[in-house]
Amino acid sequence: MILDTLENFGKYASLNPLFPKVLEYLQNTDLMAQEPGRVNIDGNKLFVNHSVAKGKKVDEARMETHNAMIDIQIPLSCPEVMGFTPRQYLPKAEYDAAKDITFYLDRPEQYITVHPGEFVIFFPEDGHAPCISPIPEFKKVIFKVKA
């Protein structure tokens, strides 16, 4: 997991061959002005979901992991709390290959607050529970990047 400010995203561009395309999109797109929906950047290898997320209470947020994709999550309209547990500490659970997701009943070991102007990268080894917020609906962006 990586948490940093958007102005520093370029420092991480070498971590994945598709990250430079994420950087280019961030530099050339007004994220707040985008309508909800999916934008393909490089087919199914790299796309971004502009979304209006539903705020959840801590006990409503489900832990999840992905095998094939990396998440880059960016809250836009308010801070968002996200739970985190390294995957190695999560129990075995059923993987949905069609949706590239495994859900867990476990509660996160720790929580981070991600503010507008910041991003968090969750790699396949990072369990995360997003969308924790007292705000009923908020804007966020999730890049899905082939791992």
Q: Radius of gyration from the CA trace?
A: 14 Å
What is the overall silhouette? globular
Q: Within the largest sheet, what's the order of strands?
A: 1-10-5-12-3-2
Beta strands, count = 12
Arithmetic mean of pLDDT: 98
Structural class: mainly beta
Word description of this protein:
- The structure is a single chain.
- This protein is mainly beta and 147 residues long.
- It has one domain: Sandwich (Jelly Rolls).
- It has one helix spanning 19-28; strands at 2-5, 37-42, 46-54, 63-65, 69-75, 80-86, 95-96, 101-104, 110-114, 118-122, 126-132, 137-146.
- A hairpin with a 3-residue loop joins strand 2 (37-42) and strand 3.
- The protein is globular and about 40 Å long.
- The two termini are 13 Å apart.
Key traits:
single chain, 147 residues, mainly beta, Jelly Rolls, six-stranded antiparallel sheet, three-stranded antiparallel sheet, 12 strands
Secondary structure layout plus pairing:
Blueprint: E1 2-5, H1 19-28, E2 37-42, E3 46-54, E4 63-65, E5 69-75, E6 80-86, E7 95-96, E8 101-104, E9 110-114, E10 118-122, E11 126-132, E12 137-146
